[in-house]
Design brief:
Rossmann fold, 7-stranded parallel beta sheet, alpha/beta, binds uridine-diphosphate-N-acetylglucosamine, 17 helices
Length: 385
């Protein structure tokens, strides 16, 4: 790849997987505002590559075409991480960046942070300090390690600073800026596709009756989908919940494969109250969540988005790294026990669920705060090519 034509002295902004796209969009947009002080250069690792997981988001969110796509694709954790590192290092070498900015907690995050740190390039981590305290989650390992080698750590909620201080991170490196994922949500809410249109499209495709009051479900964590018996028990519970209210279920490719392998794809599609679909675009998903009675998920970002939208969320995990969504927001961590899932769902349908409030600094201005801090810390190093 001809990396020598890439801009020098920029901040390399890394994305790899779907949630990264939602987080990078406002950061790139704010850094590109004139006067451009620290030019961004977007690098895609290619961790996610399906059209629905990838291209759809770039178009809708106005993210510029990446300068480089490393095209690593899917593999085991070790191979994927190693491939990203091998392919990212020559980019860093050729561009002599002012910093490498990584977001979230996916394999692309740790891989690129590690390359930068080893080459003495400052690492900026957006969404630092979140902890589930569950090392069985690959993301937790990525979070802890990325934070240890980061020079600037931008946090989304107050609990993150305490976690980082406990791990020995210097307070001067930590900046509580708010939540870039919520910048994107607030900036796009008016453009969101009306839920009615998405529901009409999905019901027509599935040959089903129209849906009015509905729940939305997402599921992709290895702990929920990789073991057939866990997945089967979950699907049986979803079918029971769907007898109370229809469930719209956009299926992650990893989950689709796992459902197939567990023999649960057909039972799920045949359940009259469950409407499956391929992954939805950002604006479709946002419109659908905004009008849902309830969202069931094991995603991290969706716990935050539902809190910002004021929609009840049931987290199908035993912990959350985003405690503010439970303490202040609309989130309830229910785990995967069928009785608890059914009882909590029933309660939410009966009472409307708990009324939450929007956490501090989830106000649409996080990316602007990040730009201000970046200029203060990196702005005077180097004057461009
Ligand atoms: C990754 C992140 C996870 C994040 C999720 C969002 C890690 C460790 N995990 O999980 O934190 O919540 O993205 O979606 O980085 N696949 C496709 N097409 C794609 C991408 C993936 O078919 O475009 C399938 C492949 O079979 C692949 C599997 O999904 O093996 C898993 O993909 P991978 O990128 O390894 O992790 P995710 O489960 O997507």
């Amino acid at each position: 790849m001809p990396f020598d034509r890439l801009p020098h002295n920029s901040i390399l902004c890394v994305v790899g997987a779907r949630p990264n796209f939602v987080k990078i969009a406002p950061i790139i947009s704010v850094l590109r505002q004139t006067p451009v002080v620290i030019p961004p250069c977007l690098i895609h690792t290619g961790q996610h590559y399906d059209v629905e997981m990838n291209n759809a988001f770039f178009g809708e969110l106005g993210i510029p075409e990446p300068e480089v796509n490393l095209e690593v694709g899917s593999a085991s954790h070790a191979v994927q991480t190693a491939q990203i590192m091998r392919r990212f290092e020559p980019v860093v070498e050729a561009t002599d960046p002012r910093a490498v900015l990584v977001v979230g907690d996916v394999n692309s995050t740790i891989a690129c942070a590690l390359v930068a740190a080893k080459r003495g390039v400052p690492v900026v981590h957006v969404e630092a300090g979140l902890r589930s305290f569950d090392r069985g989650m690959p993301e937790e390992i990525n979070r802890v390690l990325t934070d240890q080698i980061s020079d600037l750590l931008f946090t989304t909620e107050r609990s993150a600073r305490d976690n980082l201080l406990r791990e020995g991170i210097d307070d001067g490196r930590i900046h509580f800026v708010g939540n870039v994922m919520i910048d994107t949500l607030l900036g796009n809410l008016e453009r969101a596709k009306p839920a009615r249109e998405t529901l009409e499209r999905l019901t027509a495709t599935a040959g089903r009756a129209d849906v009015e009051q509905y729940a939305v479900l997402t599921l992709h964590r290895p702990s929920n989908v990789d073991r057939p018996e866990t997945l089967r028990a979950l699907v049986r519970t979803f079918v029971r919940i769907s007898e109370r209210a229809p469930i719209v279920f956009p299926v992650h490719p990893r989950t689709a494969r796992a459902l197939e392998a567990a023999g649960m794809w057909e039972p799920l599609r045949k359940a009259p109250g469950i409407l499956t679909s391929p992954p939805l675009s950002y604006l479709e998903m946002l419109g659908l969540m905004a009008k849902a009675k309830l969202v069931l998920t094991d995603s991290g970002g969706i716990q935050e988005e539902t809190t910002a939208l004021g929609v009840p969320c049931l987290t199908l995990r035993h912990n959350t790294e985003r405690p503010v969504t439970v303490e202040e927001g609309t989130n309830t961590v229910v785990g995967t026990d069928p009785r608890r899932m059914l009882a909590t769902t029933e309660e939410i349908f009966a009472t409307g669920g708990k009324a939450g409030r929007v956490p501090a600094l989830w106000d649409g201005k996080a990316a602007q705060r990040i730009r201000t801090a970046l200029e203060r810390h990196l702005g005077d190093t180097g004057t461009g090519p």
